[in-house]
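FAQ: What does the model actually see?

It sees only this:
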Amino acid sequence: CPQTASIAACFVASRGLSYGGKREKSGDQVAPASNASARRSRTNIASAAYPTLAAAFPAVAAALGDDAFAAAIDAFIHAQSPTVVAPNDLPAAFAQFARQQRLSPSWIVDLAGFELAIATAASGVDVAAQGVDVLAAIPLDSRADVRFEMHPNAAMWTLSRPACDALAAGRPTLAELIADSRTSGPLTLLVAAQRGVVCFRVLERAEAAMFGPLWRGDCLSEALNQALADDPTLEEAILSSFSAFAERWVRDCVVIAVRW
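And it is asked to produce this:
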């Protein structure tokens, strides 16, 4: 489709590549044949990287299509040359490369970032977490100063509707979660893992409004002020539901410690 073609062109044009993987110099000069060995080496590295990146970014691969995704990997490998990225570091390096290219549409970059967050959560180690009873132990006069320590492998991402549709198409196990959301607009998704199990949840507006500032390290009063400054209409929903939000975060091991 035209959109897929434009994405592939953005990848390869930014590195002076043709779809066949040929490197071109400025102007109309073609790289000499002495570079054939280097091109073959990059092609071999790209072929080896493809399975790893296809497994880490199935939704991105499906959205781009086979040819454009392969072209993206080829451009990525060329950008790393002469450095060879370790296999375990390939997903993070590829996601960073995608951001640096400022791809259009921008949701491809966000989708790659979210899929990297999934891979990071899946490969992370378990972290000891406090129980829900810690919330009841917070003194009343200290609640405004409460800060939440988040699980290092958890992440929150807001994806546009096209990115959500691509995510559902590329990762069928998430299709029902996205379909059950109550909005046709962007979705804020939470990903976390504990004991090797990766869990996903869609955050409603009030929960997402509070979770974002708390995620950045704000204390409870700062997070509330920021959330209401962004959207004053959420005040009732936040005040009536925040205790339930906090209990869920602790129970799901998204929050591993509560400090005041």
